[in-house]
Amino acid sequence: MFRNVLEWICLIYFVTHIPATLLMGNYIVWGKSLYDNLLGLPQISANMHQYGIDMDYLVRERPDWFRAMALCEVLFQLPFFPFAVWAFWKGTTSSTFKSMRTKFIIYATHTATSMVPILGTLFALPQQIKEQYSVVNFYTNISIYLIYLFIPLLILYFALKTEEQQEKKKNK
Fold first, then answer.
1. Which string of b and e fits 3-41 if b means at least 16 CB within 10 Å?
2. Domain definitions of the chain by residue range
3. Which of 31, 53, 94, 133 is surrounded by the most beta carbons within 10 Å?
4. Residue 168: its pLDDT value, please?
5. Residues in contact with 11: Cβ distance below 8 Å, sequence separation at least 6, in sequence order
6. Are 77 and 18 in contact (CB under 8 A)?
7. Helix (H) or strand (E) holding 13
8. Please, are residues 7 and 158 in contact by the beta-carbon 8 Å criterion?
9. Can you give the C-alpha Rg of the chain in angstroms?
10. CA–CA separation, 21 vs 154, rounded Å?
């Protein structure tokens, strides 16, 4: 039962990560011009900008290294998400999941290690910048990023566990 709950958490993670990447990832990479000029949706860019002002220094400032990481997410990870949803829908013991095991290992390690510079930057912000955010907003933002650290580690666990199970079957 517990394993099933963890699989559902991973499924929900990927389902919600699709719109989050489409909205936030694209905003981080292309800024207001994507929503204002190309798509004609200025309210979305206004909302993303306000989120940065209220919650997230990195979204507000969009440093080049952060934009590069978001570009990798949009170009390489986003196309993977629907397949990941399908694999977790089928379950970690399914042949679908097993066939994607290496992809899950790559995704999980990339995403988890990407959180190191993000979280490090946020914790190392000078006090005068941290003071621009309420304590609740600052730590809520940290908590959101921690989700993208811990759930990929859970995904990595499932992928490695699948490999271990396959090795046991081969040795029997």
1. eeebbeebbebbeebeeebeebbbbbbbeeebbeeeeee
2. 2-171
3. 133
4. 66
5. 85, 88, 89
6. no
7. helix 2-20
8. yes
9. 18
10. 20
For residues 129 and 149, what is the distance between their CA atoms, to the nearest angstrom?
24
Chain mean position to CA 23 = 12
pLDDT tens digits, one per residue of 47-79: 878 888 889 999 999 999 999 999 999 999 999
pLDDT at 1: 46
Residues of the chain below pLDDT 50:
1
Angle 2-20/81-90 helices, nearest 10 degrees? 160
Distance (Å, whole) CA 68 – CA 88: 28
Q: What is the 3-state secondary structure (H, E, C) of 18-53?
A: HHHHHHHHHHHHHCHHHHHHHCCCHHHHHHHHHHHH
Q: Which are the contacts of 49, defined by CB distance < 8 A and separation ≥ 6?
A: 32, 60
DSSP conformation letters of 60-73: HH--HHHHHHHHHI
Q: One-letter amino acid identity for 71?
A: L
